[in-house]
Amino acid sequence: MTALCKIAAPLLVVSMLCLSACSEAPDGKDEILANLYEKRALEFEPCERASTTQAASLVSESRCMIFERPENPDIADGRQIPLQVMVIPSLQSNPVLDPLVILAGGPGQAATELANLGLIFNKIRQARDILLLDQRGTGKLSPMRCAEDPEKLTDLSTRNLLKLQTETLDTCLSKMEADPRFYTTDIAIQDLEALRMYLGYKQLNLWGGSYGTRVALAFLKAYPESVRTIILDGVAPAAITIPLHIERDASRALERVFEACDAEPSCSNHYPNLRMHFDDLSARFEKPQIISVTDPVTGQKLTLSADIDWLHAALRSPLYGRMTQRLMPFIIEQAYAGHYAPLLSVSALDGGINSAMFLSVICSEDVARISQANFDQAQAQPYILKSRQLNIPIIEACKIWPSRALPASYFEPVVSDKPVLVFSGASDPVTPPSWGDSILPGLVNAQHFVVEGFAHNTLGTRCTVGMITDFVDTANFAALDSSCLSNIKRRPFFIGTGGSQRHD
Fold it and tell me: What pTM was computed for the model?
């Protein structure tokens, strides 16, 4: 989404307005609403439709603006960065002054690209605004971008990818008019709080998916009085060092696919040797293989050199989605037969992640706390999805990418009595249920629900959406009906259009 209107006042003036609104705001709701509507009239304009947003009618009802913030929060009059803001207005004329805030994942995904969630949360919109703020470093206004040259990506070996990565990052940093050290979560939550005060909202209801859960928890710790409720979907707490767990969590998800296929007669009959063929396929790629495929995006014929690192990294991608997990047996069997187009098609899906912002977060918050001993220990584990491309490129990139030391308190567990609703997909390959369990000791008013049949994100069902709607409406668990979760089952695996495919 591109905003059509920009705040004319410098940030220092905006900050003063925020403080003024906070200290002098009237007690009456009508006056607060009038102030909010005045800002909308003066500073918000119609939103342009984002390239990846399909909710065109919803976007047409929304309003956008640019909110400027200092890149370095310690230098208020220093370089300013523009942040895209989108408000999907409440359907009632007198809304509750605690909107639902959508916090995107990644790190590096733009919140305004998730405007379609306004349709999913339509009942919440009956009484509340839905607020989307592109986190610094994301979206079309981001001053940080690192582009790869796809023409060079024919040799998919780890060595070549690391070489290209170094070249890309060096070029990117030499041209970048931004300081990557200040695009971290602890600063991003300051942006959100400043926006809350500026718009006059009393409190926020936060929905975070994946990395967005880390943002939500950090906000709760820093600004507890600004929070009414929190919904977390696929928990990625700050205490977790992601690169250490990529292989472990992906392997767990793949093991669940094998177990589910064995237990499902249609799948086990069509793919009776699935696990053995995966092992044989992996053994084949222990030596580099030349594969010929058609690029799923361009239609170009490609001849690629690939090894086991590429194979296992590519097989991790379809584990993310509930629907793409259904394809896993088919993808594995097709690859075993020498047909790699299905694997390439699914692994090439673009998640809209800004890699520069991703590195700013991961390098400062995760990799900085990984010792060589910890990394070596993780690498020594006999996971079934072993791939140096899942973690070493991140580790190596962080040796180049500027980072900033965060205070130890940032990584301490969140302690709060605010109502927190937690969901985990039972087969999540990146934020498994154990991560959701890890945050519960400090949250005395939280409940964690594991959703069977789901992977990374649990919104694809009326059950979870209904629970979220009721939770935001009441801000308590007393009337929350979770019985519908027991009716959610894993969907049958895709067995292919050609019937049984046996390669004995």
Answer: 0.89
